[in-house]
Design brief:
Protein name: 5-methyltetrahydropteroyltriglutamate--homocysteine methyltransferase
Distance between the termini: 73 Å
Largest sheet: 8 strands, parallel
GO molecular function, one term: zinc ion binding
Cofactor: Zn(2+)
Strand content: 5-15%
Shape: globular
Keywords: Amino-acid biosynthesis, Metal-binding, Methionine biosynthesis, Methyltransferase, Repeat, Transferase, Zinc
Strand order of the largest sheet: 1-12-11-10-9-8-7-2
CATH architecture of the largest domain: Alpha-Beta Barrel
Family: Belongs to the vitamin-B12 independent methionine synthase family.
Length: about 750
């Protein structure tokens, strides 16, 4: 498909993983030593070629280049400008060094820790956090990046290189305080200028520079740094498109509009008044309107979008560009692969490749009139009407219950001190109790049994027997290691969200709806299309069986309502608050059944709790109110002697610590290793009243931690949290690791806990 429109269209980025997750399999094969670097590069080149082809077929004017990464774009930027901590040795911009930043390495028996990971703004993508050092000079090493640009220009001379903006890079980094990071801005701008000159020499016309921090509540000194930084990096003869996304510019519109750049991209899904932004722009600048939601899988309703765009187009004419709101990295690749979904759903999906088609249609409709795309508009309207007619789309019973939850303030029966006493009387746990976050290795045998059952090659009885054998194995290993609180290992679960969605009404499941989470890790969010309700117990039988195998407590494992919500593709016709309450009610019923079955500890994981937080502080309170209410509704009926755990990872907790305390979980476990326990400061400074389990080793790196590595972390935790409220556990679940890594790691963890128990009596 192509367009005769004179409106420029472009995308900010595209999925990197390729068809059937080709890049994932190539990366993991290479890391295992089973394939060469050349084979990996060939797969990557094929993925990029498919991206260029999709943009060309859809008539997109400026396809992106430089958004592709073998691991993470922030780590790529750190290597591009030589910002690699000294502990890694070489700063060379090579693939091996990129993988070391993400995975760490072992040199002469010494583990070198990888970079920390954090959520990319309010998405479920995890970026590697660059570590800046004052004595590490800015040194451009652009060969790998420029090779990608040459490849793209050969496919399309209008390809648009993409760069993380210098101030976003510095602001999201760590290692130096704010003043120290800002002190690097001048030298970094000079590095960008050198790179822009290289791009100019290759014939590049436009360069996209991402500065999404402009949608945050930035300190004044960071805002003041934009103008001098962009004056320093400006190169005559090459045009810059400054891009922002995930939020409204709000008070930063004037700043962004008047920077020495040639265009501004805004997220129109978050910006109400497009004309107000257009009016701020000088006459020579373009306005890129991110009109399509780059994180929504739903087919767009193009007619109202065209209504919004019409006055902007009348004002700007050829200075109006159209784009998705953000990089399409956050979407699956192609809905055409979803051959097994019911037709009423399949006809309403729009993945990354479909967004390109919709972008083309918007450009045609705007320049040539609605009649030029009347057929497509009618098809979309008919598809949505068919979806809305489906049974289960709207349940009066579920809606009534949702309204009741919204009007309540659920609280457990006793205060924490009262509950803690009842729980200790029931479980008689030692000081510094040890546990894990929930999952154990998903071995080849487990995956093969699940696949065989799905393909009806195993009967339900055979599959259940296989999973019970695995649970028994996991319980025996944990008892042998000496863990105090056990888990059943989650062998029967394909994914911590999809597993529950498969057993709840209102969910659907894709074949190829994969989205990158970090590195080679991909997730396949379910689709919430109807009202959510529970028709039967989901985990009770497995939990009861696991508990029957041990005298030690075995935690029941659930994914929390907020995480199920945000790690799903959510319907777009109902508020997220209402959907979250529906999920919370289903979980309340499950928790009640678990408690009735004798399960005394229940973990309700909420790793996405902070992910849902709006970017601007003024918008936080409504979200935090309903997110906390949903969690508390799920656990409200638990008796005092039932211990409620929750888990959160890769989040900043300082600014939402009051909301976390309001959850009132008996035990919270958090990821703290990559921050060297710094994330505990929020809990310590706040005097968090309940029990805490800071992760004391990083499960995302393949290295095996020793007692000598673990003990200092626990001692540091003991300086911040009283021993009687401190738990010992890994950072996260262990499903991605192998048993050869897991067993010695947990043995070292338990040995440290026992050693320190003796010291603390």
């Amino acid at each position: 498909m192509s367009t005769s429109s004179n409106i420029i269209t472009h995308t900010l980025g595209f999925p990197r993983i390729g068809e059937r997750r080709a890049l994932k399999w190539a990366l993991e094969s290479h890391w295992r030593g089973e394939s060469s670097a050349q084979a990996l590069q060939a797969t990557a080149k094929s993925v990029r070629a498919q991206t260029f082809h999709a943009h060309k077929e859809s008539g997109i004017t400026h396809p992106p280049v430089g958004d592709f990464s073998f691991y993470d774009h922030m780590a790529d930027t750190a290597l591009l400008f030589g910002q690699v901590p000294h502990r890694f040795g070489s700063t060379a911009n090579t693939l091996d060094n990129l993988f070391t930043l993400g995975r760490g390495k072992n040199v002469a028996g010494q583990n070198i820790a990888p970079l920390a990971m954090k959520k990319w703004f309010n998405s479920n993508y995890h970026y590697l956090v660059p570590e800046l050092e004052a004595d590490q000079p800015i040194a451009l090493d652009a060969a790998r990046y420029l090779d990608l640009v040459r490849e793209a220009l050969a496919a399309n001379p209008a390809a648009k290189p993409v760069l993380v903006g210098p101030l976003t890079f510095l602001y999201l980094s760590r290692g130096l305080d704010e003043a120290g990071r800002l002190a690097k801005a001048e030298a970094l701008a000079a590095g960008y200028q050198l790179l822009l000159n290289e791009l100019k020499a290759l014939g590049v016309a436009w360069v996209q520079i991402d500065e999404p921090i402009l949608t945050l509540d930035l300190p004044a000194d960071w805002l003041q740094a934009f103008e001098p930084t962009y004056h320093r990096l400006k190169v005559p003869g090459i045009k810059l498109l400054l891009t922002t996304y995930f939020g409204d510019l709000n008070g930063n519109v004037a700043l962004a509009a008047n920077l020495p750049v040639d265009g501004l991209h805004i997220d129109a899904t978050m910006t109400r008044d497009l004309i107000a932004v257009a009016d701020r722009l000088p006459d020579y600048k373009v306005l890129s309107v991110g009109i399509l939601d780059g994180r929504s899988i739903w087919r767009a309703d193009l007619a109202p979008m065209l209504q919004r765009l019409a006055p902007v187009y009348a004002r700007l004419k050829e200075r109006l560009w159209l784009a998705p709101s953000c990089s399409l990295l956050h979407l699956p690749l192609d809905a055409a692969f979803e051959t097994k979904l019911p037709e009423f759903l399949r006809n309403n999906l729009s993945y990354a490749r479909q967004k390109l088609t919709e972008l083309n249609l918007l450009a045609r409709g705007l320049s040539e009139g609605l009649d030029s795309i009347a057929l497509e508009l009618n098809q979309a309207a008919a598809a949505r009407a068919e979806l809305d007619r489906q049974p289960g789309r709207n349940s009066s019973t579920v809606r009534a219950k949702t309204e009741t939850i919204a009007a309540t303030e659920p609280n457990r029966r006793g205060a924490f001190a009262e509950r803690a006493a009842a729980q200790q009387a029931r479980f008689n746990l030692p000081l510094l109790p040890t546990t894990t976050i929930g999952s154990f290795p998903q071995t080849h045998e487990i995956r093969a049994a699940r696949k065989a059952f799905k393909n009806r090659e195993l009967s339900e009885e055979q599959y259940e027997s296989s999973m019970k054998d695995e649970i028994r194995h996991v319980i025996e290993i944990q008892e042998k290691i000496g863990l105090d609180v056990l888990v059943h290992g989650e062998a029967e679960r394909n994914d911590m969200v999809e597993y529950f969605g498969e057993q709840l009404d209102g969910f659907a499941f894709t074949q190829e709806g994969w989205v990158q989470s970090y590195g080679s890790r991909c997730v396949k969010p379910p689709i919430i299309w109807g009202d959510v309700q529970r028709s039967r117990p989901m985990t009770v039988a497995w939990a009861r069986y696991a508990q029957s195998l041990s005298q030690r407590p075995v935690k029941g494992m659930l994914t929390g309502p907020v995480t199920i919500l945000f790690w799903s593709f959510v319907r777009d016709d109902l508020s997220r608050e209402a959907v979250c309450y529906q999920i919370a009610e289903a979980l309340r019923q499950e928790i009640n059944d678990l408690a009735a079955a004798g399960i005394g500890m229940i973990q309700v994981d909420e790793p996405a709790f902070r992910e849902g937080l709006p970017l601007r502080r003024k918008d936080w309170a409504p979200y935090l109110n309903w997110a906390v209410r949903a969690f508390k509704h799920a656990v409200v009926d638990a008796p005092n002697d039932v211990q409620i755990h929750t888990h959160m990872c890769y989040s900043e907790f300082n600014d939402i610590i009051e909301a976390i305390a309001a959850l009132d979980a008996d035990v919270i476990t958090i990821e703290t290793t990559r921050s060297n326990m710094k994330l505990l400061d929020a809990f310590s400074d706040f005097h968090y009243p309940n029990a805490i389990g800071p992760g004391i080793y990083d499960i995302h790196a393949p290295q095996i931690p020793t007692m000598e590595e673990i003990e200092p972390r626990v001692r540091l935790a003991l300086e911040k949290i009283p021993a009687e409220r401190l738990w010992i556990n890994p950072d996260c679940g262990l499903k991605t690791r192998g048993w050869k890594e897991v067993i010695p790691s947990l043995e070292a963890m338990v040995a440290v806990a026992r050693k320190l128990r003796k010291e603390h009596g």
